[in-house]
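As described in the Methods, two query proteins were run sequentially through the folding procedure within a single session, without resetting any intermediate state between them. The first query and its resulting structure tokens are shown here.
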Amino acid sequence: MYDVIIIGGGVVGCCIARELSKIKMRIAVLEKNSDIGEGATKANSGIVHAGYDAAAGTLKALLNVRGNKMMKELADELDFPFINNGSLVLCFEENIASAENDHIANSGVSADRVVIKNDRSRLEELLDRGRQNGVAGLKILTGDAIRRLEPAVSQSVTSGLYAPTGGIVCPFGLTYAMAENAAVNGVEFYRQTKVVGIEKKKDIFYITCDRGVFEGRLVINVAGIYADLIHNMVSNEPMTIRPRRGEYVLYDKGVGGRVSHTVFQLPGAYGKGVLVTPTVHGNLLVGPTAEDIEDKEAVNTTAIGSATVMDKAAVSIGKIAVGEVITSFAGLRAHGGTGDFTIKEVDDVPGFLDVAGIDSPGLTAAPAIGEYVAQMVREILPAEDKKDFKPERRGIKSGWGEVICRCERITKEEIYEAIRRTPGATSIDGIKRRTRAGMGRCQGGFCSPRIIEILAQELGKEPWEITKAGAGSEILFYPD
């Protein structure tokens, strides 16, 4: 019997778990994948948004700004990478915008999803909205002032919105930090535990999973693009979550210094548009596209998607050689269609909380969502705070020893530590996201065989049982 059961182990679920671990409650997190953070969390921009984009008075606006303000202190407390690098939203000359729109339309991509804006009035709207939301330091700069900050920015840029509170974070680092600290404080994590049914009898929820039945007094639905399926198991008021696919291209560290700020173009109906940003690890990231789809598992990349983000990024900072690309990837954002996050107790199912439609700026807002939901839980299930709550966590440190990943200089001891932590790595991707082994130029070409060997040794498995990311993604073939 648990007091609270959290369905979904992405960044938002882990932030909620960590916040609730401050209270005297028994808490479980159920995650259907082989590891936490394997949904939208693993494939996003890693941007800590300033908070000027969301409409004033919405949960997105409130929780974005609050999450932004929390990030530095949390990074210090939980030891994950965060840089307050600031951001810019660019406005272009009319002829440049028109020519680029023609080029993109001719590439076969829907123009309404990639159109480049040059509307100075939109910058003014963002400035005004940001000030209403409480974003500090916003100002509109001339094109020359922007190029003094970012020399690589195009000469066609005429003006831009500067947000000094913008930042970048490692989404994996944030998620693992929250989960590990929650686990130290008593939260129990169950991975490869898919929810297949929920029934409420009297005041108890019975959650049937492929690994058995869990009982809880309160349920929090943080299942990302599957939040509608979980909601519809218990409520007569249907919910629909539609996946919105975004494709990204990641460049090598050799061009990671092309910009120091996060550089946006004016946002449109499908989101904040294609950005160019350094990452906290020194790479350069461009993307995403925005495409509403039906398949909740369609994280494949496309030739048009990669070409689109590279072409649009080139409008901001000039072209970068294709040879500098080290990988591309796609993620699915949970688009709820309301224009805002859905965070509430379900009307016809007391004790069941939806935390759904958490698309951008969900990563930024995640710590604040944790606070917000924890307060809701306190009001439904009053409980005392823990006097022995442990607020700090230390990350995996690089050290001397045998180097397993040459590109990122990751040692054997770091890989051992990634496996032995709670919740620890059980797959190649789990190692990659915790240590960066396999994230370098060769993308695991050199280190993967050694990582398989170490995982098999530590987990007591045969090498052919080790997976990339859970059942069905085995790397080695063992003949009968």
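Immediately afterward, the second query was submitted; its sequence and tokens are:
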Amino acid sequence: MTDVQRVTGNGNNNGGAARLAAARAAGEFLFLSDIIGRPVHTPSRKRLGRARDVVARAGEVYPLVEGLVVATRGRDPQGQVFVPWKAVGALGPRGIALGEEGPFPVMAAERTPRELHLALDILDRQIVDTLGAKVVRVNDLHFLRAGPEMRLVHVDVGARGLVRRMGWQRPVDTLLRLMRPGARYLLKERFVSWKYVQPLSADPAALHLNIPQRQLSELHPADIAEIMEELDAQEREALFSKLDVETAADTLEEVDAKLQRELIEAVAPERAADIVEEMSPDDAADLLKDLPAAQAQEILEEMEHEEAEDVKELLAYDPDTAGGLMTTDFVVLRPELTAAEAIDWVRREASEKEAVYYLYVTDDAGSLKGVISLRELVLAKAPQAVADLMSDHPVTVAPDAGLLDVASTAAKYNLLAVPVVDAQHQVLGIVTVDDLLDRVMQRT
């Protein structure tokens, strides 16, 4: 499906895709570059000025164009009038013909929250293409005009859009048709449907344009982290502030330590605490270690007591040891449980745990007695006891074991996670292979 076809997908807001599709046969497509800078004339052929911007109504799947900003006296803001879209007649290369003489109102100094000035707010800005999970820059905007209405339907992120805006499209197209008639540039526009993009800005007014933000939380946190790295500091903070707490926590776990610190320092302590609570304890501890002591303490004080205590325990260890790398998110079983009972227990506990590759069997004192893989438990017969299924000689490491020792142990015994135990053989946490690899790679 092409980007132009994709615009006819689902949408139930005003100006949704179904309505847009029905209008396509009777409409025409226009670009913002076809409008900006064009002279504007009244029916009596009197020149009103030049089109400076297009105003659309934010908050819809495909924003409805409400009118034009026309500069009547050079670049003086006081010389700008607003021409309602219903007054616009023909649009052509020689200019824009109006269907009304006017007079037209002077542009108000204050903008409404739903007012989107497309050239000023969107053109040349970076946006998140939530379909392709990347950052792109807007080179032009694409409209569908059908009857008395015109709606913004695509952003043009291709080189062709930039060439069009510079007024070079005709000579460049002619040259390429002669030299490379099959060039991709000639055959395919790079459009992204408006409903898949989110404008980014550090301007608080622009952040409340009521444009749907739910697509951001549907991206994989690794994709959002990659997007973050391509933005400047202000735009990163703007995007991070839009994420829900869980998505923000997952994203923090994917970015490097420097960027983690930058993002968490930009939010209030209460929100920072909510985000840190959603992170795995080991990642949360690593983050807080990189913060100034006073700020880390402030976040800990805002956290729920149980989560804060888990993180404090990990903060006591050297980050380059098993204790500093372990997580306290793991599933513990009692040996007297049957396989069926153990599976029910895992179902209840697993949603709150980082790793469930292995299940650790402990006695009343918390001492490690054995380990059983999730696969072995699922394949076991329902009445079998966990004590009969577990391996009763689990491989462990001490909390002060170095990273290379932990890595060697995991490699030697082909483990996805290694339990960390104290002198009394009580389980303190587990080191997962993915965390181990991340840390070793950071140190090499």
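The first helix runs from residue 3 to 6. We note this only descriptively and draw no conclusion about the first query from it.
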